[in-house]
Amino acid sequence: MKLNEIRDNPGSTKNRMRVGRGIGSGKGKTGGRGVKGQKARTGVSIKGFEGGQMPLHRRLPKRGFNKPNAIELNEVNVGRIQQAVDAGKLDIAAPVTVETLVAAGVVSKPRDGVKILGVGELKAKLSFQVAGASKSAVEAIEKAGGSVTLLGAVAQA
């Protein structure tokens, strides 16, 4: 056997059917598309149409609500703040605010403020000026000798 003698098996390949090239080709006139109507035309598809039946995307109920003026807070645990203090990124003497937390790299961007959550342990005596704090976080901060000042109209929860 030589390279110039290599062939596909007989009957393994077929020539491409040329559509819409006259009635003698066997795929002329309508070109395999049936007859008439929107779907016989090119580039048209009716997505989501179920033959007049109410489509699935309209049968299902609408759920949920996106509040247009929702307050988006950064949530930070007291344990993460203690890590920043141990690493020397947060100054113990200065009050802890959104700006100081962004500068220390604890939160990436200020958003609408910071809410302190109570996971972890806080040993440093810090004063917080934040938008919100959970009850467990306030307890942990006051236990360490610190204080919490809530800014704005964010409810304590």
Automatic annotation (TrEMBL):
<dbReference type="InterPro" id="IPR005749">
    <property type="entry name" value="Ribosomal_uL15_bac-type"/>
</dbReference>
<comment type="function">
    <text>Binds to the 23S rRNA.</text>
</comment>
<dbReference type="InterPro" id="IPR021131">
    <property type="entry name" value="Ribosomal_uL15/eL18"/>
</dbReference>
<keyword id="KW-0687">Ribonucleoprotein</keyword>
<comment type="similarity">
    <text>Belongs to the universal ribosomal protein uL15 family.</text>
</comment>
<dbReference type="Pfam" id="PF00828">
    <property type="entry name" value="Ribosomal_L27A"/>
</dbReference>
<keyword id="KW-0689">Ribosomal protein</keyword>
<dbReference type="GO" id="GO:0005840">
    <property type="term" value="C:ribosome"/>
</dbReference>
<comment type="subunit">
    <text>Part of the 50S ribosomal subunit.</text>
</comment>
<feature type="compositionally biased region" description="Gly residues">
    <location>
        <begin position="21"/>
        <end position="35"/>
    </location>
</feature>
<protein>
    <recommendedName>
        <fullName>Large ribosomal subunit protein uL15</fullName>
    </recommendedName>
</protein>
<feature type="region of interest" description="Disordered">
    <location>
        <begin position="1"/>
        <end position="65"/>
    </location>
</feature>
<feature type="domain" description="Large ribosomal subunit protein uL15/eL18">
    <location>
        <begin position="75"/>
        <end position="149"/>
    </location>
</feature>
<keyword id="KW-0694">RNA-binding</keyword>
<dbReference type="InterPro" id="IPR030878">
    <property type="entry name" value="Ribosomal_uL15"/>
</dbReference>
<feature type="compositionally biased region" description="Basic residues">
    <location>
        <begin position="56"/>
        <end position="65"/>
    </location>
</feature>
<keyword id="KW-0699">rRNA-binding</keyword>
<dbReference type="InterPro" id="IPR036227">
    <property type="entry name" value="Ribosomal_uL15/eL18_sf"/>
</dbReference>
<dbReference type="InterPro" id="IPR001196">
    <property type="entry name" value="Ribosomal_uL15_CS"/>
</dbReference>
